[in-house]
Design brief:
Strand content: 5-15%
CATH superfamily: HUPs
Distance between the termini: 40 Å
Number of domains: 1
Helix content: 25-40%
Strand order of the largest sheet: 3-2-1-4-5
CATH topology: Rossmann fold
Number of helices: 7
CATH architecture: 3-Layer(aba) Sandwich
Length: 226
């Protein structure tokens, strides 16, 4: 049953954040959408996905901000075109080149600032632990620690919870949950490389494709092989 508590959803435009948005809307009557771009290769395509998803749900309270300084800092194939986006290797235990150093902390800090201003009581984020072997800022313990930092660094009357409802789901389970909630998966975008046809070979594309395959459902977005 939906509450009347205002919540913020970080919506990148990807599949995981799309399903997270659907879950947040099921739980809350009032929801604001936040998109944070950071100079990534597919910035414009992800922004389009964010706005398409927000339009689908009729979200008027939305904020689109840029922290392009992460691109100037560099260190990631998503923000530095001198670093090649690697082919997917789902068996690797190494941190992939697509890791953007401490990105989620930067995004959560912005979400926390906005939450204090508009009185939101929770921040939803589509982090998935399946990705955490490569991305240290996708681990459950990171979000637990960050929530403690929020409690310490905000006004005494501020009470903001960080919610990661898909963090323990596999990609296939996320696909199934999205279909169950009638989330607009066809409007989402996951590719790290391309903004027209998804490449089908980067980590994000391969994880997404595998999720749809295991769920027994055809991915509604277009790939270069199709």
């Amino acid at each position: 049953m939906a509450s009347n508590i205002l919540s913020i959803v970080l919506v990148s435009g990807g599949m995981d954040s799309c399903v997270t948005a659907a879950l947040a809307l099921e739980e809350n009557c009032e929801t604001a959408f936040l998109h944070v771009s950071y100079g990534q290769r597919t910035e414009e395509r992800e922004r389009k996905a964010f706005n398409d998803i927000a339009d689908f749900y009729g979200i008027e309270n939305r904020l689109d901000v840029s922290i392009e300084y992460l691109a100037r800092i560099g260190g990631s194939s998503l923000t530095d075109k001198k670093i090649e986006v690697a082919q997917a290797d789902l068996e690797s235990k190494e941190i992939p080149t697509s890791y953007v150093p401490f990105r989620n902390a930067n995004m959560l800090a912005i979400a926390t600032s906005w939450a204090e201003v508009i009185g939101a009581k929770s921040i939803y984020l589509g982090a998935v632990a399946e990705d955490s072997s490569g991305y240290p800022d996708c681990r459950p313990e990171f979000f637990e620690a960050f929530e403690k930092a929020v409690d310490t660094g905000t006004k005494p009357e501020t009470n903001i919870r960080i919610k990661t409802p898909v963090i323990h789901l596999s990609k296939a389970e996320i696909v199934k949950k999205g279909i169950e909630l009638e989330a607009p998966l066809h409007l989402s975008w996951s590719c790290y490389r391309s903004d027209d046809l998804a490449c089908a070979t980067c980590d994000s594309c391969v994880l997404r494709l595998r999720g749809f395959e295991l769920a027994g459902v055809k991915d509604p977005i277009r790939y270069k092989f199709a």
